[in-house]
Design brief:
This protein has nine helices and 15 strands. The protein binds 2,5-anhydro-1,6-di-O-phosphono-D-mannitol and magnesium ion.
């Protein structure tokens, strides 16, 4: 008989909160509500091909990407699961230009939720991994409705972050600043069960992940780093293998488990990169650091960046500590 205890995410969250004397229960309530939303999204994602709900809605989101029906469903599901619990004072979603207020008739709480409801949506039609990303902060304003000020906090102030990867199995990976823990959904009982306790990223990996189609737009320093990764050198395990899904959650999940480096750099077309600091950079950086890894924009720790806009973009390099340090050395011209 297996020696492993069966631990649901709900129990894990409650036990984590018990370790903090004086906790009000709001935090565990918030994460419980979020988990319900994730299960509702998973249900739709997993039957998407069957019920033919795929396809564009004929309108574009604020970033100009095609807005798929599932993006909209995921966005609304999270908002509706979280608007009435009394845990949040404000939300922000990658699909919406402005902050999302709590309806007047519902109580407000002391937390802020920032989320990317369905990342990697260009992969939906091909049945490739997609995901949901979330980030939670304590509020800064004192009471009532939260504001933009509550949302624009640097990543080191996050109190929790995580993602759900809807892949060959569905997993929820999260941190509250006490390590990174992964839960696999058992679809038969509809519960996320602890499957990856205290995930640690290897100190160095052997995989790099980047959209190499942008090669000719990259800086010379970045090109030199990629050449370094491709060189033969047995002592450092090079050449590295290249893996790129083009869906952040899947690419980061692999990097977290296997090590190596994921990059979405700045280039001549996108001087600030493509990914968004608040919705993608900060939650992934918090997770990676909690697992013993590193996350940078090339010269500054992601979690230290003071955000100025909700949708600002950031060059992103994250992964194994040693790999990211070497990338920084190349990007800063200290290695050639
Ligand atoms: P999205 O938020 O519109 O889905 O875009 C974000 C996605 C990430 O999941 C992924 O890392 C990146 O875009 C891939 O971009 P590209 O196709 O330029 O490589
Ligand atoms: Mg996204």
């Amino acid at each position: 008989m297996s020696k492993n205890k069966v631990i649901t995410i709900e129990r894990h969250i409650i036990e984590g909160e018990r370790a903090h004397p004086g906790a009000s229960g709001h935090f565990s309530g918030l994460l419980r509500d979020l988990t319900l939303a994730f299960k509702m999204i998973w249900r739709e994602v997993s039957k998407a091909g069957l019920v033919n709900i795929l396809g564009t809605l004929g309108r574009e989101n604020i970033h100009g990407d095609d807005l798929k029906k599932l993006d909209l469903f995921a966005d609304e599901t999270i908002y509706r699961a979280m608007d009435h619990g009394g845990h949040l004072c404000v939300m922000a979603s990658e699909e919406n230009e402005d902050v999302l207020h709590i309806p007047e008739n519902y109580p407000t709480g002391k937390y802020v939720l920032i989320y990317d409801p369905l990342d990697g949506s260009s992969n939906i039609d091909a049945n490739i991994t997609i995901g949901t990303i979330f980030s939670i902060y304590g509020r800064v304003t004192r009471s009532g409705q939260g504001t933009m000020v509550d949302c624009l906090q640097p990543g080191y102030k996050q109190v929790a972050a995580g993602y759900v990867v809807y892949g060959s199995s569905t997993m929820l990976v999260y941190t509250t600043g006490d390590g990174v823990h992964g839960f696999t959904l058992d679809p038969a009982i509809g519960e996320f069960l602890l499957s990856h306790e205290n995930i640690r990223i290897p100190r160095r990996g052997s995989i790099y992940s980047v959209n190499e189609g942008n090669y000719h737009r990259w800086s010379d320093n970045l090109k030199k780093y990629i050449s370094y990764l491709q060189e033969e050198d047995k002592t450092t395990g090079r050449p590295y293998s290249s893996r790129y899904i083009g869906a952040l959650v899947g690419d980061v999940h692999r990097t977290l488990l296997y090590g190596g480096i994921f990059m979405y750099p700045a280039d001549s077309k996108r001087p600030h990169g493509k990914l968004r600091l608040m919705y993608e950079g900060n939650p992934m950086a918090f997770l990676l650091e909690q697992a013993g890894g590193r996350a940078t924009n090339g010269c500054e720790r992601i979690l230290d960046i003071q955000p100025r806009q909700l949708h600002q973009r950031v060059p992103l390099f994250l992964g194994s500590e040693e790999d990211v340090v070497i990338a920084e050395e190349f990007l800063q011209g200290k290695r050639t």
